[in-house]
Amino acid sequence: MATVPLIHTRYSYSPQRPSSSYSASNFSSTFLSGRNRGQRKHSFGAQAMSTSTTQGSSIGITTSNLNINGPQHLLVLVHGIMSSSSDWAYTEAELTRHLGKNFLIYASSSNTYTKTFSGIDEAGKRLADEVMQVVKKTKSLKRISFLAHSLGGLFARYAVAVLYSPDTCTSGHLGDPANCAIENAHRTNFSKGGLIAGLEPINFITLATPHLGVRGKNQLPFLFGVTILEKIAAPVASLFVGRTGSQLFLTDGKPNQPPLLLRMASDCEDGKFISALGAFGFRTVYANVSYDHMVGWRTSSIRRETELASKPICGWIQAYC
């Protein structure tokens, strides 16, 4: 099966103190800043903010077109392996404080702790169902964004493929044309790339996510690049972290079916994975260059071995695509 490159990235190095964590205030200021990324404006806030379609046309958002009856922008926070929504407590509070009432900040709770072992596909489907329930309960919503950490980034990528609709009148409306016509009349213009859960997709952001899996040299840093340990880890991963382990090490393939992560690098019968990502106005990955013991920076920054710097600097990489 032929696959296409997952994403094309441009990189800017940001040296910082050695740390594997990200500051919530840094993110909110990034979301609100509206700084140019090439020909695009990175946006998230309601004040002096603009959103951009994948074709590059801008839609201004002002106080006059905010829905005073409820939040318009759903921001879904997705945690990583063996974690829970409580991991986002501080970030959720800070983002709520900085972004204001026009945002509904929602920390996912459908894949807590050992549920993260059931497989990226199963967790992704649960996340998609959870997001749809939130959308159905909050009628004022018009836009959607995802902020996902570590393994949660893969869950989110699978979920958006499940939630993806290539037209204006499918996902999130239970196939009812009447509902679709009425609700879409109140929505903003959106990217021709489609909808996610019936909403306009704006930002898709991952933090230290193993997009390429953890198979290969130094992709699971706590093994210290020791070849024998890396070879042993692959076949036994499923004993410790279930189907998810097999999928991360790309050992879940069958004679007539490539591993899941390879299938997720293209549009295939499992889902429109690339089309769903392409529907978002902005797609950003953050990768730890050092001090991340779980996820190597080649897999989290989506790069080939030959594209890595020979002497990594301390800090993190931010990539826009």
Automatic annotation (TrEMBL):
Q: Which domain of life is it from?
A: Eukaryota
Q: Where is the DUF676 domain?
A: 71-299
Q: Which Pfam families match?
A: DUF676
Recorded hits in InterPro entries, A to Z, give: AB_hydrolase_fold, DUF676_lipase-like, Lipase-like
Gene3D superfamilies linked to this entry: alpha/beta hydrolase (3.40.50.1820)
What is the protein name for this chain?
DUF676 domain-containing protein
